[in-house]
Amino acid sequence: MQVYQKTGYKRFFRWVCRGAEQEKCHDLLSSEGFDFAPVPEVPGAWVEENGPFGLGASLAGYFGFLYIQDLSSMLPPILLAPGPGQAVLDMCAAPGGKSVQLAEMTGEGGLVIANEPSRDRLGTLRANLERLNAANVVTTNYAGQAFPQGPVFDCILVDAPCSGWGTVGKNPAVTRVWKKENLHTLIEVQRKLLEKAYKMLAPGGRLVYSTCTTNEEENQNQVHWILKRTSLAGSPRAQHMQSELGLPGLESTAPGMLVMKGDESGSQSFFMAALEKPGKRAWTQENDKVNAPSSWHKLMPEGFDLPEPLEKIGLYGFSGKVFFVPDKALPYVHQGLRIKGMFAGSLKKNSFVPNPRMRIFLKGSSTMGYQVRDVQEVRALVSGQSRFFDASTRNGLVEFYWQGLPMGWLKHKKSRVFWSDK
């Protein structure tokens, strides 16, 4: 394992795997020739130091054990810092890295509502959540500024659309695409998002506003604008985080506000502000104890038990398809929110057939199913090859493991197994 060097533009990522599986995930990435190192200042952050091909094409990336995410992009969720069991709204969620990071913080008893206004980007968001097995995240498709009024949230992330000037290191054309004189529309959208977020934030809740631009009109000026018009106040959490992390390039510009100078850490430049609403939320766990709508069909598929920590997430069937829906999402459904949970599988002749990517149903270090030790065998299956396997199946699927690490489900036909996530 290499030592993290803070020079030049870097490829950062986060591991997305259960604690007991992380060592195996490291082995999987190493076995393909990648060198990587932790970033000690940022919890959960890693950096690729060397690799034979693109990190996204690695098996660890393909099977959703890691997510490529710029170091600066990991900071807004850390600043928001939702607690276990809390409800979080990510107002502009695609492609989903921050939503998954927030989901890890809230835990299986929590909830992240990942909202994405663009239908095209919504598809990318859902595909990423599925690949990463983010069962406690549900998606919505509203324009952020038109998000239905009524639901309130403990924490809200507004990772706003912006000019992107902070990404100029990897995207030099961005300053030509977004010139200063053309930013009035963006600035108006950002203000509407902040206004809506304020209305949906629970008393005592925290809001983080972030952008990947260096333009003060979209950053500090927008925060000052919302502070003058609402009861929001800058959170001391920002300065505490700066002190705790000691990250090169992370600087405080005003109470509650931080800027990340990317060239000092090999990442993009970023702005973020933590704002808090005064008061205390009049909400208890009893408010979360509501039943699913009577038209919903809750399933308990035999032989496909979820791990115990996921007992607060239900499986529901809709027109032959099965989706995860966290219990904590049900009050929001009753308030009229149109949500969609992560795709878990299908019903065929009243039998549950899991989505091949749902390793969440598999037990770690199992000796069952199709076991592979050579990483090239995994590559062969992913590339479309099949292998002989004459054994019992579970509704036409076979558990798939690499050295005991759950990978997903192989399809089985005529004594052959093959990989297909379709």
UniProtKB/TrEMBL annotation:
GO biological process, one term: RNA methylation
SUPFAM superfamilies: S-adenosyl-L-methionine-dependent methyltransferases
A Pfam family recorded for this sequence: Methyltr_RsmB-F
Positions annotated to bind S-adenosyl-L-methionine: 92-98, 116, 159
Domain SAM-dependent MTase RsmB/NOP-type: 1-278
Sequence similarity: Belongs to the class I-like SAM-binding methyltransferase superfamily. RsmB/NOP family.
Entry protein name: tRNA (Cytosine-5-)-methyltransferase
